[in-house]
Specification:
The complex is a heterodimer of chains A (463) and B (305). Chain A has 463 residues and is mainly α. Chain A is built from 15 helices and 4 strands. A 4-stranded mixed beta sheet of chain A has the order 2-1-3-4, sandwiched between helices. In chain A, a hairpin with a 5-residue loop joins β3 and β4. The longest helix of chain A is centred in the middle third of the chain and has 31 residues. The N terminus of chain A is likely disordered. With 305 residues, chain B is α/β, with parallel strands linked by helices. Chain B has 2 domains: 216 residues, P-loop containing nucleotide triphosphate hydrolases (Rossmann fold); 64 residues, Alpha-Beta Plaits (2-Layer Sandwich). Helices cover 34% and strands 26% of the residues of chain B. In chain B, a hairpin with a 3-residue loop joins β11 and β12. In chain B, 51% of the residues are buried. The model of chain B has no long low-confidence stretch (mean pLDDT 87). Classes of the chains: A mainly alpha (463), B alpha/beta (305). Chains A and B meet through α2 and α9 of A and α2, α3 and α5 of B.
Chain lengths: 463, 305
C-alpha cells in the first residue's frame, strides 16, 4: 500500500499520496519524484514492495527504457522540515544529480571497471610491488642470461715450458683452431708453472723432453677442461706422428654439426624465471587483496554495495591477467634481444594461453592463502613459503633432470612445473598444441579444485 | 505505516557471550536515533544485524519494509553504512575513493565530487585517503556512505577519536543529513553527542535495551536532583539552611567547600528565591541531570575495560 509510506519524510517519497504533494514538486527541478524516476516500474501502481528509492536495483541491467535519466534526489530538503539549529552548516542543497551519470545502466560492468581501475592504480602506485613483480624477476633473467651465456665452451689456459715441436710447428688456420680451445702461454720456469697448475690458475703444463716425448701435466679440478686439453694435445701428437711417417693417412675424420637440440641457458631460464615471476605475482595479488580488503573491512563495504561477488573476483582476475601478460611480453622481449639470443619457434604464441591458465591456477593458490591467513604478514609468509619451494622444485632456477626420483615425483604434481615445461616447449623447442593443451586443462582443473577449497574456507569477516 | 527499522527480539551469541540478548526497537522514518552503551554493550553487533551484515540467531528485522538478511540487493542502494574503522582502498586519493564508491552504485563522478565538497573535503581531493587526518577520514567515510543518496544511514561511533572542533563540525554535517529527511541511526558513547543530535535514544548494556526515549524525557524520568551553586562567602551555608527550612523548602542539601556554595534539591525554586532575596546570585549555576547521569544510573558506575 502506498499509504504505508506516509511517514517517510524523504523526498524519495516524492509525490507520495500522503498529502505532502507539494514536497514532491521536486525542489531540485527534476520531474516529480513519484514512482518512476527511481527505478520503480513505470505505471507506478506497484504495491508497497516496490518501495521508492530503488526497488529495482539501480545497477540492474535491462530496465525499462522509460526510466527518467534524471534520478530523484532523495536528499532534497523537505520544505517544512525543522531547521535544525542556527549552527547547522548550511545544509547545502543535496548533491545535484549528475545528469550524465550512467546511473542505472550496467552496474555490474561499471563495478568491474571501477574495481579493476582501483587495483591497477594501487599497483602502479606501489613501487615495491612494481619492483618485486616486474623488475626483480627481470633482473634474474638478465643476470642468469649473462652469466651462463658463454658457459658452453670451457676455454683452457696452458703453460708451455721450453720448445714443444707439435705446438710450435702449427701455423695459420691450424694454430687458430688450437687457440680456440686453449691459450698457450710460454713460461720459462717449470716449477713456477707447475705451482700455478696446482693452484688452479692454469689448467695444464706442456713440455717436451729430449727423447721427443710430449709431457702434459694437468689438474683434474675441472674435468671437462682437462679432458678437452688432453684430447687436443693427443690429437696434435698423433697428427705429428702421421706427418712424420710420410705416408698419406689411411683414415680421415670429417665432422659435421647436427642441429643443436640441447637447451641453451636462455632457453631454460626464460620459461623458468617467467613461471616464477607469474606465480609470485598471481599468488600474492590474490592472497593480499583478499586479506587486506577483509582486514580493512572493504569486503564488508563492498558487500553492502550492490556489487556481486562475481564482479569483485572478475576484476581481480582481470587485473592479474593483465599484469601477468605484461610480464610475459617484457620477458620475451628481453630474452629475444640479440644479446641473449632466444629464438622463438613456431607456436610460441601458445605461451600466452598457457600463461593465462597458469595465472588462474596460481591465483587459486592465493585464494586459499587469503582465505586462511588473517593478516597481511601471515599471507606474505605463507605465499612466499609456497611459491619459492614450488619454483625450485619446478625447475625455475635450475634443471630438475638430475634430481632424485622422489623429488621429481613431487615436482610432477606442481602446476608451475607443468607450466614451465610447456612454455619451454612451445616457446623455443618447436612444441605445439600437443604440449600446451593438456597442461592448460590440468592448470584449469587445479584452479577449479583449489578455488572450491578456498570457497569453503573463505569468510567475509575477520571474526 | 512502515517504520524505517523494525526489529523484534533479536539475539546473537558468540560462543559463551550473549552479545545481543533480545533487542526490539523501532525507528521511524526521518528520525535521528541513537544507540548508547558502554564498550561491549552489543551496540555494534546490533547495528551489524540491522544492516544485514550478520545473521541474528533469533528475531526478526525489517528495514524499510524488507528483510536485510540474507543479503538483499534491492535494499542495498537505499541504505548507507559507515563503519567504526574507515574502509578505504589502498593508495587512492580522497576523490578517487569517493568516485569509486559512487560508481559501485552507478552514481556519476560529478555527484561524488559534490558530496566531497559538501563534507568540506573539496580541497583535499588529491590527498591520499590514508593521509587524511582523523576528522577528515571520518568525513570522507561518511561521504562515501552518503554518495548514493540512501534513505537510511547507519553511523557507528562516527566521532570517536576526534578533537572537539572536528566533532562539532561533524555534528553539523549529521544534522544536515537528517534535516534532509534521511533516517539516521547512530551509535556512540558520547552522551553529549546523543543529547544534542538524537530525537530518541536507546541505552543498551549487556546486549539488552534498558530504556528508550527522547533524551530530555529520559533525563526527566530520572528525577534527579538539581544542583544550584553560587560563589561562597556571600551567604553562609547555615544561614541558607535556616532560611530554606523556614520557607519549607523540603529536602535540600547545602554545602560550602570554601569556593562554592551549593544546594542540591528536587525543588530548586525556593533555593533560587532565597538566594535572590539575599542578593547572593554571583556565579550562579544551575545544573540539572544530563543524559550522562541517566546513562550511569542505568549502566552502573563501575569501570569496564
Amino acid at each position: 500500500m502506498t499509504d504505508d509510506r506516509t511517514g517517510v519524510r524523504g523526498p524519495a517519497d516524492g509525490a507520495a499520496p500522503d498529502g505532502t504533494a507539494p514536497d514532491g514538486a521536486a525542489p531540485d527541478g527534476t520531474a516529480p519524484d513519484g514512482a518512476a524516476p527511481d527505478g520503480t516500474a513505470p505505471g507506478g501502481d506497484t504495491p508497497d514492495g516496490a518501495a521508492p528509492g530503488g526497488a529495482v536495483p539501480r545497477g540492474a541491467a535491462g530496465l525499462p527504457a522509460a526510466r527518467t535519466p534524471a534520478a530523484t534526489a532523495p536528499g532534497a530538503p523537505v520544505p517544512g522540515a525543522p531547521a535544525p539549529d542556527g549552527r547547522t552548516a548550511a545544509p547545502t542543497p543535496p548533491a545535484p544529480r549528475d545528469p550524465h551519470a550512467p546511473r542505472a545502466s550496467r552496474g555490474g560492468v561499471s563495478a568491474f571497471g571501477s574495481l579493476s581501475k582501483v587495483m591497477v592504480v594501487a599497483f602502479l602506485r606501489d613501487r615495491s610491488a612494481l619492483f618485486f613483480v616486474v623488475l626483480f624477476p627481470l633482473m634474474f633473467l638478465v643476470l642468469f642470461g649473462t652469466l651462463f651465456k658463454s658457459a658452453s665452451s670451457p676455454h683452457a689456459k696452458v703453460a708451455q715450458v721450453g720448445p714443444v715441436a707439435v705446438v710450435d710447428s702449427l701455423k695459420g688456420p691450424a694454430r687458430d683452431d688450437l687457440d680456440k680451445v686453449f691459450t698457450v702461454t710460454r713460461m720459462p720456469d717449470e716449477a713456477e708453472a707447475l705451482r700455478k697448475v696446482r693452484k688452479g690458475d692454469l689448467d695444464a703444463l706442456i713440455e717436451q723432453d729430449g727423447s721427443g716425448t710430449v709431457v702434459l701435466r694437468f689438474s683434474a679440478a675441472d674435468q671437462v677442461r682437462a679432458g678437452a686439453v688432453q684430447g687436443v694435445v693427443n690429437a696434435l701428437v698423433q697428427q705429428a706422428n702421421q706427418d712424420a711417417s710420410g705416408r698419406p693417412p689411411a683414415y680421415r675424420l670429417r665432422s659435421a654439426q647436427v642441429e643443436d637440440e640441447s637447451i641453451k641457458a636462455i632457453q631454460f631460464f626464460t620459461p623458468g624465471l617467467l613461471g616464477w615471476a607469474i606465480a609470485t605475482g598471481a599468488v600474492f595479488s590474490a592472497a593480499l587483496t583478499l586479506v587486506s580488503w577483509r582486514k580493512k573491512r572493504l569486503l564488508r563495504r563492498l558487500r553492502l554495495a550492490p556489487v556481486s561477488a562475481g564482479a569483485i573476483v572478475a576484476s581481480r582476475v582481470g587485473v592479474s591477467l593483465l599484469t601477468g601478460l605484461v610480464q610475459t611480453a617484457i620477458f620475451i622481449s628481453v630474452a629475444t634481444l640479440p644479446f641473449f639470443g632466444l629464438r622463438l619457434t613456431g607456436h610460441w604464441w601458445l605461451a600466452v594461453p598457457l600463461v593465462v591458465c597458469g595465472i588462474i591456477a596460481f591465483m587459486s593458490i592465493g585464494l586459499v592463502v587469503g582465505a586462511v591467513a588473517k593478516t597481511e604478514e601471515a599471507a606474505n609468509g605463507m605465499a612466499q613459503s609456497i611459491v619459492l619451494p614450488m619454483s625450485f622444485l619446478s625447475g625455475s632456477f635450475f634443471s630438475m633432470d638430475d634430481a632424485p626420483s622422489w623429488l621429481k615425483g613431487i615436482s610432477e604434481v606442481l602446476p608451475l612445473r607443468h607450466l614451465v615445461t610447456s612454455v619451454q616447449s612451445v616457446l623455443t623447442r618447436g612444441g605445439g598444441f600437443g604440449d600446451a593443451l593438456p597442461t592448460m586443462g590440468g592448470l584449469l582443473l587445479f584452479a577449479a579444485v583449489l578455488t572450491g577449497i578456498a570457497w569453503r574456507l573463505f569468510s567475509w569477516e575477520d571474526a | 505505516m512502515t517504520a524505517a527499522i523494525a526489529a523484534e527480539g533479536i539475539r546473537k551469541r558468540y560462543g559463551d557471550i550473549q552479545a545481543v540478548d533480545g533487542v526490539s526497537l523501532t525507528v521511524e522514518s526521518g528520525e535521528f536515533y541513537g544507540i548508547l552503551g558502554p564498550n561491549g554493550a552489543g551496540k555494534t553487533t546490533t547495528l551489524e544485524i540491522l544492516e544485514g551484515i550478520r545473521e541474528a540467531d533469533e528475531g526478526r528485522v525489517e528495514l524499510l519494509g524488507e528483510s536485510p538478511w540474507p543479503r538483499n540487493p534491492r535494499l542495498l542502494p537505499r541504505i548507507g553504512v559507515q563503519f567504526q574503522a574507515s574502509a578505504f582502498f589502498e593508495r587512492l586519493t580522497a576523490r578517487e575513493t569517493i568516485r569509486t564508491f559512487a560508481s559501485l552504485y552507478g552514481v556519476g563522478a560529478g555527484t561524488a565530487d559534490t558530496m566531497l565538497d559538501r563534507v568540506g573535503l573539496a580541497g583535499f581531493g588529491s590527498v591520499r585517503a590514508e593521509k587524511l587526518s582523523g576528522g577528515q577520514a571520518q568525513r570522507l567515510s561518511i561521504a562515501c556512505a552518503l554518495v548514493h543518496d540512501p534513505e537510511l544511514v547507519f553511523l557507528d561511533e562516527p566521532t570517536t577519536g576526534l578533537d572537539p572542533q572536528a566533532r562539532r563540525n561533524l555534528w553539523d554535517l549529521l544534522r544536515g543529513i537528517n534535516a534532509e529527511g534521511r533516517t539516521v541511526v547512530l551509535t556512540t558513547h558520547y552522551l553529549d553527542e546523543a543529547e544534542i543530535l538524537c530525537d530518541r535514544v536507546s541505552v543498551m548494556d549487556h546486549g539488552r535495551i534498558l530504556r528508550t526515549g527522547a533524551p530530555a524525557a529520559l533525563v526527566r524520568e530520572l528525577d534527579d536532583k538539581v544542583r544550584v551553586s553560587v560563589e561562597s562567602g556571600v551567604v553562609g551555608a547555615d544561614a541558607l539552611r535556616e532560611a530554606l527550612a523556614a520557607a519549607g523548602a523540603g529536602d535540600v542539601t547545602v554545602e560550602d567547600d570554601g569556593t562554592t556554595l551549593s544546594a542540591s534539591t528536587r525543588t530548586p525554586a525556593p533555593v533560587l528565591s532565597a538566594l535572590a532575596e539575599r542578593n547572593a546570585l554571583r556565579g550562579l549555576e544551575v545544573r540539572g541531570a544530563t543524559l550522562e547521569d541517566v546513562f550511569l544510573h542505568l549502566t552502573g558506575r563501575e569501570y569496564r575495560a
